Amino acid sequence: MSHNSFGHLFRITTFGESHGPAIGCVVDGCPPRIPLTEADIQAELDRRRPGQSRFTTQRREPDTVRIVSGVFTDERTGKQVTTGTPIGLVIENVDQRSKDYGEIKDRYRPGHADFTYDVKYGIRDYRGGGRASARETAMRVAAGAIARKVVPGLVVRGALVQIGPHKIDRGNWDWEEVGRNPFFCPDAKAAAFFADYLDGIRKNGSSIGAVIEIVAEGVPAGLGAPVYGKLDADLAAALMSINAVKGVEIGEGFEAAALTGEENADEMRLGNDGKPLFLSNHAGGILGGISTGQPVVARFAVKPTSSILNPRLSVDRYGHEADVLTKGRHDPCVGIRAVPVGEAMVACVMADHYLRHRGQVGQSSSWPFPA
Amino acid sequence: MSHNSFGHLFRITTFGESHGPAIGCVVDGCPPRIPLTEADIQAELDRRRPGQSRFTTQRREPDTVRIVSGVFTDERTGKQVTTGTPIGLVIENVDQRSKDYGEIKDRYRPGHADFTYDVKYGIRDYRGGGRASARETAMRVAAGAIARKVVPGLVVRGALVQIGPHKIDRGNWDWEEVGRNPFFCPDAKAAAFFADYLDGIRKNGSSIGAVIEIVAEGVPAGLGAPVYGKLDADLAAALMSINAVKGVEIGEGFEAAALTGEENADEMRLGNDGKPLFLSNHAGGILGGISTGQPVVARFAVKPTSSILNPRLSVDRYGHEADVLTKGRHDPCVGIRAVPVGEAMVACVMADHYLRHRGQVGQSSSWPFPA
Amino acid sequence: MSHNSFGHLFRITTFGESHGPAIGCVVDGCPPRIPLTEADIQAELDRRRPGQSRFTTQRREPDTVRIVSGVFTDERTGKQVTTGTPIGLVIENVDQRSKDYGEIKDRYRPGHADFTYDVKYGIRDYRGGGRASARETAMRVAAGAIARKVVPGLVVRGALVQIGPHKIDRGNWDWEEVGRNPFFCPDAKAAAFFADYLDGIRKNGSSIGAVIEIVAEGVPAGLGAPVYGKLDADLAAALMSINAVKGVEIGEGFEAAALTGEENADEMRLGNDGKPLFLSNHAGGILGGISTGQPVVARFAVKPTSSILNPRLSVDRYGHEADVLTKGRHDPCVGIRAVPVGEAMVACVMADHYLRHRGQVGQSSSWPFPA
Amino acid sequence: MSHNSFGHLFRITTFGESHGPAIGCVVDGCPPRIPLTEADIQAELDRRRPGQSRFTTQRREPDTVRIVSGVFTDERTGKQVTTGTPIGLVIENVDQRSKDYGEIKDRYRPGHADFTYDVKYGIRDYRGGGRASARETAMRVAAGAIARKVVPGLVVRGALVQIGPHKIDRGNWDWEEVGRNPFFCPDAKAAAFFADYLDGIRKNGSSIGAVIEIVAEGVPAGLGAPVYGKLDADLAAALMSINAVKGVEIGEGFEAAALTGEENADEMRLGNDGKPLFLSNHAGGILGGISTGQPVVARFAVKPTSSILNPRLSVDRYGHEADVLTKGRHDPCVGIRAVPVGEAMVACVMADHYLRHRGQVGQSSSWPFPA
User: Fold this and answer.
1) pTM of this prediction?
2) B329 in a labelled binding site
3) Average pLDDT for residues C141-168, to the nearest whole number?
4) Does D133 belong to an annotated binding site?
């Protein structure tokens, strides 16, 4: 069962509400003897942390992570390493403003999970979205920092490729640029445009959607467990489980519908090293649910932040009609901070499938085969 | 673990290769005392069966299903019903042409899983795609026929909404039309166009992609298990696990990226019955991973059939370059037959979440709440 | 996967080492709207806490539990209740003596997991047994306190029925007595004997095994998921997973091997209430893996504490022979403190199966059936 | 979820009722390239098959297994091998006597699952015990035949060590003898006694219980997933899930309760090969839930066959009192045929843990460690 757990051999289980005492995560199944410190995790958390620019929420969440189990000092190297036992991670919540939630505690904010949690459970922690808050994604990023270390040679990077109707120019793609602007945008020119564009959105009290692309390089060929544990099926679940995500695609994605078989085929030749060389990557690195060895490319669409300053029609939990507007600190485009979250989820999927593959197959067969 | 199983409380496990002796499925966790006959399942299988028009493969697969366990006659009604024990389903493979596979048994057809299965497992049943064949989806459709009966009032319908770059006119949408044309297309005019269009594709020995939309009505509010077992996360995995699918979206999907918070909000009022009434359904029936009670709307993109008559560059398993072209009987647009498969997977997700919800919560709370 | 998780719909995941910063547990799938406070859990933890008599270890572990998520105040009742989201529990470790572990950090204590953890993982937290320490069972007891509340009417009680070769007199069984002596023993006379007997064991620096019996009353008929999720199979796993347990039995258990079919049959009549009445309970409340409605009776054997003051032959991790003796504070009979742990695990199994049954079947059929 | 599935990376799912059309099993996760034929499986099935002596049921079940998926011919060796895809196994039921079930179809046979299935599901296939029949164990034995091939060097053997109150003389233990008598008994003298003893039981229309011991040799050190996926916890679940089993123990088992820490300690020295050498095996090859490298020893108790010729008091499903006696063909001691079933379940646990261990850890660390 997977209420609040994700993965099988590399499994994460998160807990915690936005304004509760703490949030946390258990990472179970991590291989032993992997160097791991709180600083490793903190570095990733800092990339996601809000309040770093005017384009993300101004909440102050230092998000200081504490590793409470699963690591120990290796005497011979002096380094702290994983032990193979569950890694417990805890972040205390510190910016829980004792504000008045009177306006929204009984009303259902359109686009939020307020109504559905209430109908399902009959009770909900309404403070800051409770369990449905994107605050939970801090623990995904923390877990992802560990997952990244599990697959040797794995590099997972994400980039914002669209805000509103505005797509970046892929010809300008520069991974270095991603770290230089507050949008994780690989196109410097688009980033400049987005700054102005989002200022307008923000000043209107409005919000806007976005599309994020995640590229995983160094994924060995052979990962994936057909037919229901396909690598792409798990990626789809992983990315769709992120708050506000409404679509996921692999490789050409929805564009593939418009292609012919000739156009979409990824032809193969032998490379100079005698290894198979794909001449294109329409498949996004996955065929039949199994990785090809090419970069795995996934994209996901994030809807506009539901919390906006303009009032919307709604109802309350007692069966009355009521209008709702959201005060307070919010992201005009939640898609921005979804970039490191998407990376983390992709890393978790790769770690899980790497261990599953190693479990079933041991070592991949050496291609080419002797005749 | 979910190599070849899907779902938790309602779990399906399939087995079988395209040209092996038989394919089958175990449906575990189905509630007892649900009327079920082979005819119920056969009716769904017949919708997916190939060879029914010139637009699908001409293979002859009668796909006669046999229920070998999990049902018994209820003496008082004389009806055959489920017993709560695992339902075993078997279809014998009868059209296994003893043809010569010499040309493709060592060569990797671009776009197929030939290469990835070989690299992963070091051995593969190359006949007709083996385990990676869409033949496996017959068992999904069979399982889906059972799943449909689990959630009272559930109606799951699918429709083909795009072939190649050509989208249907949603203004022409007529569910009745879906059963009248060989494309599962709800727009009669588009269906007529698709017939000509696909004839051209077919005569060229080419293939083309498609987009399918699945609508589930009668989904009670409250289904979904946040935060990793979200209803939409499981739908994404279910649909992405279907052969040749490259993208999945819920509600507005990727279009949501271009919307503002105001545009995307589904406002609420009270209906004449005093119940909450959504004024729109951009969310596709899911908020925070939990069903709202509105229709659940999902779309998925299917890539063009990889088997085409025009030769493509490739390599073989012994490390030589080789060209590949596919002879024989194939679908010019595999997206067409994916419609009943998509319906089946959505039904399975709903059945699973219905039982999970009933397990955790018992009865949903009665909304509105007493003040 | 179940490295550090137990259960399905009611699932616990624990983390933490004996001498690490903290131990914790995530309880996922708990139904909403169940009253729950830290005091509810603390009461159970206090029953297990060491240092309460001279017969258990003298470590000081206040074991103060903190609920960090999954609960919220129900405004209408003012009570804190579960919300259906994961319940995070954390206990900070406070009695981590900065003692010298030099003697045992490289040596394998016979009967302990030192050698096996080292061989498996290549690294281990040797302080106090690390993850293999019985300290982990504090979180089982905490989770069990929640599980007890899930099944209406469930009462789970445990009793120590044997220490060393000495069995209690079952004719003296008095549940009230269990709380009056430091052994959880239902036979006052046996308890007096055990006090002397264990004093002798303790003064010799030795240790001794024990047998515990758990009785669950109020288990509704129909719980159990045949054939691999049988109620007794899950009970066996649950109890065998407790530290130092080497045997589990249900009802007559191993004695059943010596019985004839006539002797072992639990005959049935109709009770005065018209309901089925079993005339005996050799089966221990479970037939075919499903509860009968009678009390569920399980017993488990706990081996003697492996930490003893008398030196034993061993080897070290560098391949040298070395003797080991254990200094410090230890239980002469770890079986005693296993009583509340056994209760907790049985409660967790019942909660899980109750939710699973409610998921698959909804309401049990009403017996007798109309003719 | 595990209604009818067992295991994680090596997972078996069975289906089928005693008198339904067929029984079957899906083995998912089996590594590729393992030689496997129907004859391999048939050999194990034949050991379990009934009707081979007067001490087991006289039903004729040829139990001819068909592999319908998951295998393919390796061209280079000409051998049939596993492909890594799910292995489907089917046995058609052929000896379904069209007998009159009138007497038991509404009555609950004491000791059987009749009552509990009826109360749980409200419907049951009463013919021959339906799903609760030991017929299901044929598929366990079939799956076990595959599991045995997964762990290199693994040898799993079982023996009957007690019938009724009569234990074998362990000094006479001879594994060769197990195959020479109809009881799987390693003590020739005891076997002779059992023949007479069981004749008496059988002629009286009675039945008797038994104890079986399973020994797994060649289990590498390091298997086991603490703390809830311990090797012994999974063994306990596996064995307790077998029909009629009421107790499971590892190593000394319940006898450990009577031992002191000194007696129970398995001391270690270095062997002539420089590897750790245990001087005893009270632990039964498992410490802290992880294998030590010694033989894993498990025992389980089987209750007497519930079907006896002497009438017992009972009730029927319509709420009337009624007596029950069982006519027809039954085993006087079901424990006998449980021997190959127990072996199979132990083999399945070992295969699963072997793959899990290989997944998480890859290669075990090489002991001893460099200083």
Assistant:
1) 0.97
2) yes
3) 98
4) yes
